Amino acid sequence: MNTRRHFLGAAAGLLAAGAASRHALAAAPEAASRDSAETATPRQPQAGRPYNPVVTLNGWSLPFRMHDGVKEFHLVAEPVVREIAPGMTAKLWGYNGSSPGPTIEAVEGDRVRIFVTNKLPEHTTVHWHGLILPNGMDGVGGLTQPQIKPGQTFVYEFVLKHPGTFMYHPHADEMVQMAMGAMGFFVVHPKNPRFMPVDRDYVFLINAYDIDPGSSVPRVNTMLDFNLWTWNSRAFPGIAPVLARTGERVRLRMGNLTMTNHPIHLHGHSFEVTGTDGGWVPKTARWPEVTVDIAVGQMRAIEFVADNPGDWALHCHKSHHTMNAMGHNVPTMIGVRQDDLAPRLQKLLPDYMGMGSSGMAEMGAMEMPLPDNTLPMMTGRGPYGPIEMGGMFTVLKVRDDLPRGSYADPGWYRMPPGTQAHATQAGIPPAATDATEPAPTPATLDVRKPAHDHQGH
Ligand SMILES: [Cu+2]
Questions:
Q1: Residue spans with biased composition (Basic and acidic residues) (predicted)?
Q2: How much of the chain exceeds pLDDT 90, in percent?
Q3: This prediction's pTM
């Protein structure tokens, strides 16, 4: 028993000195790398037990190899460049060319051996968030292992005891490394591929950054006031749509590695929470929802039958999380007349625009001059105009004719005649305006104090 334990320890390369032995390092599988933010089409497993692969939104899954019955992966922690959405890239930390890192997929009962090479400028570790494993594989720097120094490779090896939805992230200089985007998903498929089958199984991490307009490196000391709300380090309109053919069963797996909770809301369907941090939820314990609140550090899997064709919003319901950077310190101008103010301010600030007197929707439509490498606060165009969103927003596209297994964007939904809200004159008093007339001048709000000051005091 003792001998065997020593042998395993040596073979796994987790030596007292911390670094992998030369022998183990030579045996590390090649580290795949990918810097594209396109959603990779899921690949059926080439070896090992069968499973139904997940689809990582704007991401990919890490290839593995089988070595004497052990599933081997190679993660490389390193600086990466990530396109957050067209028009903005960020300098982040991630794994294998990406932030978040590639999704690791394996099967309940698998023994996995994960080589971790540190190409960051400071030490790191990898914690396997939610997995039940031996203490020495938990990846907490200083507590369960020495940190992995720059240039070193460590090996983690453990058996996957439970199927479910998990994450990985550093547990070394954790606030900085997560603020920089070092994180990924870890999906353990059930041993029985017919257990809770779905037609499409999507995963994305909920993450957030604080990147000043015009810059590309996140502020790493921000605690709460993040300004870029992202899924898999992408912001709307950069987040890929979630696609389904009518009648298909869809699972969304989400994990929250931000500093706040996110109520994720789906239009047009109700769903059930089928998976939590601890595993799968029995059928008798589920109830229908249209919003699931995902707390900090939690994972949730939700499932629904996509039985309602259309383009359905899928977003965080904290409305400032569906906006991009800027604007959070702008004063409320609703009801404030600026028509005399703007010319005066323009003498001091030639580019000054008086905005917001009737709300902020004009921000979504206008082409404002922005600093380089900055996303508009509200943006995106749909078939009927500006969508006025940013951040954690995408569209569930349900189509009767979407080919099974296709992840190609089918374009915008065409509503059947008579099924769309429209401008009408019915029931409106004759004096009122309606949308068929030329655009009305913006309403002004003239607030007057009651005139009791010159009435009898
Ligand atoms: Cu949110």
A1: 446-457
A2: 68
A3: 0.82
